[in-house]
Structure formats: C-alpha cells, structure tokens
Amino acid sequence: MDKFTTLTGVAAPLPIMNVDTDMIIPKQYLKTIQRTGLGKGLFSEMRYRDDGSENPDFVLNQPAYRNARILVAGDNFGCGSSREHAPWALLDFGLRCIISTSFADIFYNNCFKNGILPIAVSEAELDRLMDDAKRGANATLTVDLAAQEIRGPDGGVITFDIDPFRKHCLLNGLDDIGLTLQKAEKIDDYEKQAAAKRPWT
C-alpha cells in the first residue's frame, strides 16, 4: 500500500448526501476481484449518459476536476452495501482523500485498508471546504496527515481527528498484509518450533 503523508491537489465538490456504494461503483462492475481498472466505473451512472458518452454536467468530467485527488462530499458518504470495490474504484481514479461530515462504518474502515484517508469534519468546516472546491483547479487543498491539518488555498487551516493506529498505518503504507509481515520473523520462529514439536503434522 502506498504511504499517505502529505497530499496537495484539486478537490472536487460532490454536495450530495447519502452517496451509497452502488452510486460509487454500480453492481455490474463487481465481477472482478482486481483492484485496478475500476476507475472507469466510478460514479458511472452519473458520469455517463445512456449512450456511453460522458455527461458534461458531472463534476469529475469537467476539465478542472479530471485530475482531482480529493473529494469533498455530503453527509453519510459510503453508505449501503459493504462492497470493497468502492474504495478500489476511488483509488483507481486517483482520489486519495475523501472529506465529509460522516461515513458509513464499513466504507470508512475499507478506506484505511486501501490507502485512502477519510476525514470527518463539522458541517461548517465542510461548507468552507466545499466553497474552496467549487473554485476549480485554481484552488488546491493540502492534507497533512502527520500534522492532522487541511490547509486551504487562502491559508485557512482545519484540524481533524484520526485514530493513532490508523494514522500510523497510513503514514507507513501498512495494510493488513503489511502489518502481518512485520511479524514475519516471529511467525517463522513459531512455525519452526511447531514443526520440531509435532513433526508428524
């Protein structure tokens, strides 16, 4: 998993409440277990018209936001079914940080396991960040995980809370497998001792 330290980039505004995982990545894209290639299906029912052409009104199709790295979204983001394809699609598109007032628990946990930083802020703070995001590519945000700060284009700073363990994992690029591999030496020692004690197994 890629480390998350400091991220500076364009923030796309998505002022929609209750964006569920089916909106993030519709069911027809769930046939794969590959984590890559799902970016094309991200928000596909809003991004594309029935004939497959792009919907120019959708934010991520607009020139200023095609390379957005941050998404500023309405309350209760990631609700609905527990599909891990949702953070896979966001990450494959290039989004590394989602800011909202609240997240569905399973989606929130899945973000951390895939190198995405979900940040919960107050309604007033979200309004400020949404205003910044609506200014387009000329207004970038900086998310500093170590300092737990979001810095706006005009110098404003918003601080955020994060669980220390999750922060440690993101800063060091540790997913569940990475955490396990940190104990590889102890695991090997245990396996050797177990084999010596029970050679018949």
TrEMBL record:
It is an enzyme of class 4 (lyase). GO terms for molecular function: 3-isopropylmalate dehydratase activity. GO terms for cellular component: 3-isopropylmalate dehydratase complex. Keywords: Amino-acid biosynthesis, Branched-chain amino acid biosynthesis, Leucine biosynthesis, Lyase. Pfam families: Aconitase_C. Coiled coil: none annotated. Pathway: Amino-acid biosynthesis; L-leucine biosynthesis; L-leucine from 3-methyl-2-oxobutanoate: step 2/4. CDD domains: IPMI_Swivel. Its EC number is 4.2.1.33. The keyword Amino-acid biosynthesis applies. The keyword Amino-acid biosynthesis applies. It catalyses: (2R,3S)-3-isopropylmalate = (2S)-2-isopropylmalate. InterPro entries: 3-IsopropMal_deHydase_ssu (IPR004431), Aconitase/3IPM_dehydase_swvl (IPR015928), AconitaseA/IPMdHydase_ssu_swvl (IPR000573), IPMI_Swivel (IPR033940), LeuD (IPR050075). One of its GO terms (biological process) is L-leucine biosynthetic process. Belongs to the LeuD family. LeuD type 1 subfamily. Catalyzes the isomerization between 2-isopropylmalate and 3-isopropylmalate, via the formation of 2-isopropylmaleate. PANTHER family: 3-ISOPROPYLMALATE DEHYDRATASE SMALL SUBUNIT, 3-ISOPROPYLMALATE DEHYDRATASE SMALL SUBUNIT 2-RELATED-RELATED. NCBIfam families: leuD, PRK01641.1. Heterodimer of LeuC and LeuD. This is 3-isopropylmalate dehydratase small subunit. It comes from Methylocystis rosea.
